[in-house]
Amino acid sequence: MKRKRSLKDILERRKRKAFSHEGEILIGKVVGVHGLKGELKVKSESDIFERQMEVIDKVTLYRGTRKEELPIEGLKPYKDIYLLKLKGIEDRSGAEERIGGELWIKEEERAPLEEGEFYYEDLIGLEVYDEKGERLGKVKGIFEQPASHILEIEKENGKVILVPFIGEFVKEVDLKGKKLVVSLIEGME
Description:
This protein has helices spanning 7-15, 49-54, 92-96, 120-123, and strands spanning 24-34, 39-44, 58-63, 66-78, 81-86, 102-106, 127-130, 135-143, 150-154, 160-164, 170-174, 179-182. By secondary structure, the chain is mainly beta.
């Protein structure tokens, strides 16, 4: 007799990851397919997605318990996403099997950054201080918005401060010292 799983069991199982992504960086998610020749529609998880794709020759695609390292055949912008052609995915049905998959690269394959550019994962966890030196909290997340990225700063009491990631508000980013200095205006806190 087959045991019926509870909703709690199912949700717990979904939380567990099939793979450890230690030493890897998420750069994109497969959100659909395009045409009949196996092109994937990819939503970028990086501001420098195109530049990143130029310096690598393959990506690791994870979907569920499946892991594939696939060579890159082509990439082109398409509306607000990208069309990615990977070797080994030759038709629409093969591409459809990868919907919901994630594209990861090794940390050492990251594209070099220009002055004032940062990887999201390098900012997450930084201690945040105001210009007076008072600790505000830690960077919990980053939201992409059309005008600017928004830093989500979690205070010790669990409250959240949202700060646009622009020079007017972010005064200093010290990755070595693991700290960020911001200037807040009335109403931000």
